[in-house]
Structure formats: structure tokens, C-alpha cells
Amino acid sequence: MLTEPSVSVLGLDPTHRNCVLNGNAFQQDVIQSYNGWQYASFYSSLSADSAQEPLYIHLSRRKLPEGKWDTFVFEDYPQTTDDGHNTIQLGVCPGDGTIHLSYDHHCDRIRYRYSQPGVAHSPESFPWSASLFTPHLSQLPGLGEEHDELLSYVTYPRFVQLDRNLLFSFRTGKAGLGDDHLAVYGLQEDGTHRYTVLGTNLKGVDNNPYIHGLDVRNGRLHATWVYRGFVWYEGWDDPLDAKHKQQRGPNSAENNHNICYAYSDDGGWSWRNGTGEMIADLAKGESVRPDAPGIVAFEIPKGSGLSNQEAQAVDHEGGVHVLNRDAVDGEQKWKHYYRSPKGVWTQRALPHVQGVKGGKRGRLAVSKDDDLYLILPDHTAPVLTALKASKASNYSEYELVWRENGFPPTEPLVDTTRLDYDNVLSVFTRATNSNGADIKSNSRVDVVVLDFKL
Fold first, then answer.
1. pLDDT digit string (tens) for 284-312?
2. Which of 425, 409, 415, 405 is nearest to 6 (CA)?
3. Tell me, what's the pLDDT at 330?
4. Which of 128, 172, 303, 429 has the highest Cβ tally under 10 A?
5. Measured between alpha carbons, how far is 213 from 375 in angstroms, rounded to an integer?
């Protein structure tokens, strides 16, 4: 069993909203460590005592292992849209020590800001305040007007550290009818750091890809995803159409199908399938298309309860782990899909938990010792569960190592970089101030970080 975690409170969660903004599976690195410091970002009201409109981006940092959180607020940007897509994403560029934020997107113009160089390299040299960051931006740093159209309809941004650079992934288009694109922030020939657009890595054709995750291990960039087929509806091509912005619009998860895999060994420029065959060269304007050979790891038909953007992790030997759920065997189950370093895929249903159709999504994390941890929420009850699949068992056995009440249904997030730093599992989630209280009650709900010493 895991020892009980230490709990630190970041701030008040805005439970007056219909949609959860602090804790969604596609927030790949909203909590992460770099250079012995940990960073996290969340939405909250300006009032520390009650949830009020509008909300504002809060950015926190602490010195590891047990420093006190220091938090400031970006008061120049009020967030007003009650939409669970409109989360915050956080990235740190190792090359120049800048901290990046992208936020509040659901088919919207890019929203972005970043810090002065060196802030993440020498944290103690920079008093923590909003003055370290640029104003709100509507463009990626260094890109010109030629990319305005590309950046006018953004959803699901995510950051990935790639050697000394910072990779930026984002979707354009709408649910069931979109593409995923890549840009990279890094050192240019003139000695400055700025963005370069790589291209469209995943092309949708009457569908759109939903990425589980982008992870780099030993120089290789791994991606897994599902496709969502498009259901045509009246007015779909109207520029003012907003039906697709509904939380459960015309193109729902019922149309999710197939788990796919590809990798890149050159920073996202070219992509290969599981057998090593080249399937796309972005420098030539190519993309991984739905009919690309060898990309389907598991054929899972529509209507099988397959989730989108659930979770991915890569172990130190290059094994790829995916968390999702399906009802292919007749019963809806959470599953662990695993690609061994030799390229062999397996799947196993998870014990101790129920993979509810349409339920809250979980998280995967690999420890310093290469054991796999599965952090799983309950869809209706305020319960959080942790399972462990050891490397010694070849990730084939799942031990219940922790389960507690007091956590409203939230999609937990994990600081994956800290696991390699000091083997502490930091979980970003929401917690009530009274054990087992219901989120609909008047009980306070906080954004918290749970620290498990492994």
C-alpha cells in the first residue's frame, strides 16, 4: 500500500460552474517540475472565500521537496466561458528557461503568454509575480501573420519538452472534423528563441484524432490516439455554428473508434508506424492520415464506449502504456493497453474499478523504478483510487495500493517529471474539506496536490 500522501492546497475551486476546469485529462502538464521546482496552474476567483465570477488564471510554484506554494494571479484576463474544454496548459522550455501558458480555448483564437528567459533556470533570482510574463497574446511568439488562420480556431493545446525545445500541439476544426498540428519553440540561427510550425501531424478525414498523449523517452516522441467520425448535421458548415461547442454536441464519443500509434525520432518532423515504416514527412507537407498503413493498434468499433484523450505514459525502456475503456467483450471495462519495447501490443481489463461509459478519465504515471501507477477517479462518488502494475510482473498484475474518499469526480493529473526527479507521485486534483462530502453540497472544494512518497 502507498503511505498516506501529504496534501497542499493551491486554492478554491469554482464549484458554482457547471463544468470542471481544474482537472481534465487533456491538461498534459498543468503540474510539472523543472530544475528542482514545481509549477502548477488553476482557475479560481479573486475572492479567497467564495467562488465568484469571473475566474482568473492562478500560477503557483514551490521549491522541492517540501517548499511552500507561492501563487500570483493574472488579473488582466478574466475567464468567463463555462466550458470544460477551456482549461490551462503549462510548459517549460529547457533552452531559455521560459514558462509558457496557453488557456481558455474551444475553437478560439490562440490565447497565450510566456515569461522572461531564465525564470525556470534561476527561480530564486526572480520574485514570483505576473510582471515576469508578457501580456495576453493572440499569436505564438515569433510567428507572423501568415499563420493567423491556422491559429484562429484552436482547441486542446499541449506542451511537450523535447530536448532543449518546447513542442506545442493543438487541434483545429471541430469535434469529428479536425486536424492536429505541431509547432516548436526553440533556438533560431539569430540567437533568439521563437516558434517554427512543423505542420499537420495528424490529419482528419471526415473525422478528427484525439490524442491520449505526447511523450518523449530516449529521444523518441510517442503518440497514441483515437478517431472520432463526423456526423453531418444541418448547419455544420455555417461559420456561426456553435452546436459543436456544446459539452455533448452532435458529434459525441459514441463515434470514437480504434486506438492508433505512431512515433517520431526527429522531433515530430517525420512519423513512422509501429513496424518502423515511414508514413508521413511534415517537411514535405505530408500528414499521418486515417488510412496510413500500420497505425491501428486495436480495432475498436464505434459505439464501444471508447473514450477520447484518456491517458498515455512511456516507461524507461520505451514501452507505451495507454489507459482507456471499451465494451468489445460485452461489458464496459477500464483497460490497460500496452506496447512492449519489442512492439507487441496486449490489453488487460483492470480489477478493483469500473470503467463507466462516458465516465471521468484517469491518469498514468511511470515511477523512477519503472512501475506503472494508474490514478483513477469515480464517476459519481467522491473517491480516488490508485493501482500499481509492477515492472516485475511485466505490467500484467494490478494491485490496489490506495483508495480514499473526499475527492469530487475529477480527472486527476500527475507531475510525471517529478517521478524521475525524486520518485514522488504528485497528483493534482480537487478535494472537499469534509471527508466524502458531495460536490453539490455547500462544502468547500479546493484544488490540491497530493504527494505520495514511493
1. 999 999 999 999 999 999 999 999 999 99
2. 425
3. 92
4. 429
5. 16
413 is in which domain, residue-wise?
6-235+250-453
Q: Report if residue 329 sits inside a domain.
A: yes
Sign of the alpha-carbon torsion through 435, 440, 441, 444: positive
Domains: count for the chain = 1
Q: CB neighbours of 389 closer than 8 A, spacing ≥ 6?
A: 336, 371, 372, 374, 395, 396, 397, 398, 399
Residue 424's CB is within 10 A of a number of other CB atoms, namely 21
CA distance 255 to 385: 28
Cβ-contact 349, 337 below 8 angstroms:
no
Distance CA 280, CA 260 (A): 15
Span 322-336, average pLDDT: 96
What does the pLDDT look like over 152-191, one tens digit per residue? 999 999 999 999 999 999 999 998 999 999 999 999 999 9
Q: How far apart are CA 331 and CA 222, in angstroms?
A: 29
DSSP state of 355: -
CATH of the domain at 396: 2.130.10
